[in-house]
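Explain the record.
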Amino acid sequence: MPHATRSVFVWLALMVVGWPQAASAGMPSVTLADVSRAVSRFTELGLTGLARQRLEVISFFVVGLLASTGVIQWVWNGLRNDFPVLPRLSYARALGIIILWGLLFVLVLTMISGARELMTPGAWEKQGLTYRLVPPPPVPPIEAEIRARHEAINRLGGRLVDYARGRGGAFPVPGHAVEEEVEELLWRLPSPPGGRYHYVGGVLLNDEYVVSPTILAYEPDTVGSDRLVLMTDGTVLWLSASEIERMLTSEEP
């Protein structure tokens, strides 16, 4: 049985050797065309465009790292001509120095990012591996803002008029007492947030008092040069800053 098995292997070997086939002569060589075909073949096997771009970026930084290492080694060993006490720097040690400094810079930048986040909480949001500033909220349309300002000052005017009608036509006296008589929410501006109306005070107009209306309350300068002004007869006017100042000056005794 072993003899028969050896005979089969011998016949197979003779058939392979004796089978006619093309023979290649000469030394093997690799050209740029072969490299290009190999890369194309590698792309067909699964290297996507994104992976190729990442590979190019990584290779760029690797080449930059190696080039920087060579520069550091050349500068250091060049300084040995003037400072013989300096030890000779090998390429491996120069590479270690470059990597160490890179890690230190990463640590410092991480600490700066952490301090920035602590000093401005909520101002940054994570986007992938990095952070970006939180975009500001959308600015409401001008028409909606003006409508909200009109509605707010009209609500304040209605509350003050109701107060005056129940007290013989007298509005609240300016000062801390007016905040106790009228709800705090009515004194706040809808836009910009945090602002408050300026209150002047006065007397509610009726048939017994035939006088021109005066300024009762008006918006602060944070809304701009043109402001909404609440008059003592309950009307709301658009007045400029100069007109408001002129009217307030004329009302002074």
Notes: The longest strand covers residues 226-231. The mean pLDDT is 76. The radius of gyration is 43 Å.
